[in-house]
Design brief:
The complex is a heterodimer.
Chain A (H helix, E strand, L loop, with lengths): L1 H38 L1 H6 L3 E2 L6 E2 L2 H32 L4 H15 L2 H18 L9 H25 L3 H9 L4 H30 L2 H6 L17 H8 L5 H34 L1
Helix pairs in contact in A: 1-11, 3-4, 3-6, 3-8, 3-10, 4-6, 5-6, 6-8, 7-8, 8-11, 10-11
Chain B lengths: L5 E11 L5 E11 L3 E5 L6 H8 L10 E8 L2 E2 L5 H7 E4 L11 H5 L1 H5 L6 H14 L3 H4 L12 H13 L5 E5 L7 H14 L4 E5 L3 H7 L2 E6 L2 E7 H6 L4 H7 L5
Parallel strand pairs in B: 3-8, 3-9, 6-7, 7-8
Antiparallel strand pairs in B: 1-2, 1-4, 4-5, 9-10
Classes of the chains: A mainly alpha, B alpha/beta.
Chain lengths: 285, 255
């Protein structure tokens, strides 16, 4: 009897999670429907205009989709030269040593810093630096946001890649050394190819984190609603436009913001799913 | 029989993992060219440790110290570049581990690829064919050379690993219990192969299997607690061991 009750409780608790997830999706779809119906789904995605003058309201998601993709991809590019060495250091060169565990703890610590702190640091340290270096006149913009975003995703990419690098069997490495390979050759020609799909999937998951990051990006991207024409120009990401405007929006504009939210939700879910599937495959292989 | 000059000579070779304990203690022995020498002994006696000293595998682990001398054709390998030593001393490990991302063809040539040595297409084809024939694998895999090495059976994988080592044309081939992960048929295959190979390369094999040592080796070493207890003709050692410890091991009273 007790056992049965326990089972039911477990079942109910486990069911709540998918129900909540489905509920969020349902609410997003119903609230976004108005915008999609008014502008047309495809048109909404490809229109670059975002104007809320009464009577001539027009909302399109292209500037924000572009902003999100640009910041995310740039962050990925900036993140690789930092996360890959950390992963190699922890997973191969100093595997199991004290230095490695200190380094990986510090890296993981980065993941625990609230994003508002990163935003503040970016705003008061990095932005003036970018202005001083004459990279862009206003300091904020796609580039600034990407740089800080890159630092934020380093821990995710690094600790996961390190795990896959660690998993490369010693047999293979010793086999390569026994054939006269140097350490660099072993890393390049054995460790990376063998751990490759795992490392790749860690970066996919890091992208998943970067896509939805809101606070930091909102503080640094410059918040303009046009399609950014270079990496130094200002813009808005999908998350930052919602954060900027949800409070003052109603009717069609609110529905458009929610539509952007829905698109972001779907992209993020898709990327995370791909990453998870790839990690599963890499673990088995 | 012609007079044989030792290709490899241990001279008071010591290996220690920590400052206090020595895993191999003052081993001195000379290995004849083109022979198979078996290293036997109970687990933990230091036989693998001694073997791995020959291709400077211990250099990969900073805590391990190797002292004394190991002479390869009269030259002390302990003061040579590890990479040069490993080009001349190949190794086959306990568990067959072909590179999983490479094809069978590329696995044979992996030594060249890893070292960044470029070969022409004909040289590559010749090397692959010669080495795979050497390990009696050619007929089995010649039509699937582009498949991954891990697609083969355990015994075939181990022969592929031997081919990979032979491709570098080593003077010496070290084998660390190469058949302990294999079934009896695959083991018999590899033993037959070793007897063929000794014409080209000097083989030093660590084995747990006394029958194997008897079947293939001309000389045997018996190690116990890091010491080389006895070294001599395999047949003599098995029929008439001179040390009580060797006798105890060979008769199964100690293992």
């Amino acid at each position: 009897m007790n056992d049965k009750l326990y089972k039911i409780l477990l079942f109910v608790a486990a069911l709540i999670v998918p129900i909540v997830c489905g509920g969020v999706l349902y609410a997003l779809v119903t609230d976004a429907y108005e915008a999609f119906e008014y502008f047309g789904f495809f048109n909404f995605l490809t229109s670059s205009e975002w104007s809320y003058t009464e009577g001539a309201e027009h909302y399109g998601a292209l500037p924000f989709i572009t902003g999100t993709l640009m910041t995310t991809l740039l962050a990925l590019v900036f993140c690789i030269p930092f996360s890959l060495p950390v992963a190699l250091f922890v997973g191969e060169y100093f595997k199991g040593s004290k230095v490695a565990s200190v380094l990986s703890t510090v890296t993981d610590l980065l993941a625990g810093i609230p994003s508002i702190i990163y935003g503040l640091w970016g705003f008061y340290t990095l932005r003036p630096l970018i202005m001083a270096l004459n990279i862009s006149p206003q300091g904020s913009g796609i580039l600034t946001a990407s740089l800080v975003l890159a630092i934020m995703i380093v821990p995710y990419a690094a600790s996961l890649s390190a795990e896959f690098i660690k998993m490369v069997p010693n047999d293979l490495k010793e086999g390569a050394y026994s054939l006269g390979a140097t350490r660099a050759e072993v890393i390049r020609k054995v460790v990376f190819p063998v751990a490759g799909s795992g490392i790749f999937s860690s970066y996919i998951l890091a992208i998943g984190r970067a896509l939805g990051e809101t606070m930091t990006v909102t503080m640094l991207i410059g918040n303009t609603n046009n399609v950014p024409d270079s990496i130094t120009s200002t813009g808005n990401s999908m998350a930052s436009i919602i954060a900027n405007q949800f409070g003052e929006a109603d009717d069609l504009r609110l529905s458009s913001l929610i539509a952007i939210g829905l698109i972001l939700f779907l992209i993020t879910a898709f990327i995370n799913m791909i990453g998870k599937i790839m990690i599963k495959r890499a673990r088995i292989a | 029989m012609e007079s044989v000059t030792p290709i490899l000579e241990f001279n008071k070779t010591c290996v220690s993992y920590t400052k206090q304990t020595m895993a191999v203690k003052y081993v001195s022995a000379a290995i004849d060219r083109n022979t198979i020498t078996a290293i036997m002994g109970p687990s933990g006696c230091g036989k693998s440790t001694l073997l791995r000293a020959v291709n400077l595998m211990h250099n990969l682990y900073p805590n391990i110290r190797v002292d004394g001398e190991i002479l390869l054709n009269g030259e002390n390998i302990l003061s040579m570049e590890p990479i040069d030593v490993r080009h001349r001393v190949g190794m086959v490990f306990q568990r067959p581990a072909p590179f999983p991302t490479m094809s069978i063809y590329d696995n044979v040539l992996s030594g060249y690829a890893l070292n960044g040595i470029r070969l022409s297409k004909t040289e590559k084809d010749e090397t692959v064919e010669r080495c795979l024939k050497n390990v009696a694998l050619w007929d089995e895999v010649k039509d699937v050379l582009n498949k991954k090495g891990t697609f083969l059976s355990g015994g075939q994988q181990q022969r592929l690993c031997i081919a990979r080592a032979l491709a570098m044309k080593p003077d010496i081939l070290l084998m660390d219990e190469p058949t302990s992960a294999l079934d009896p048929i695959a083991t018999a295959h590899i033993e037959k192969l070793m007897l063929e190979l000794q014409k080209e390369v000097t083989i030093l094999i660590v084995t747990h299997n006394m029958g194997q040592a008897m079947r293939i080796s001309s000389k045997s070493m018996f190690m116990y607690l890091g010491e080389l207890v006895e070294y001599g003709d395999t047949a003599t050692m098995f029929s008439n061991p001179s040390d009580e410890r060797t006798k105890a091991y060979l008769t199964g009273q100690m293992g």
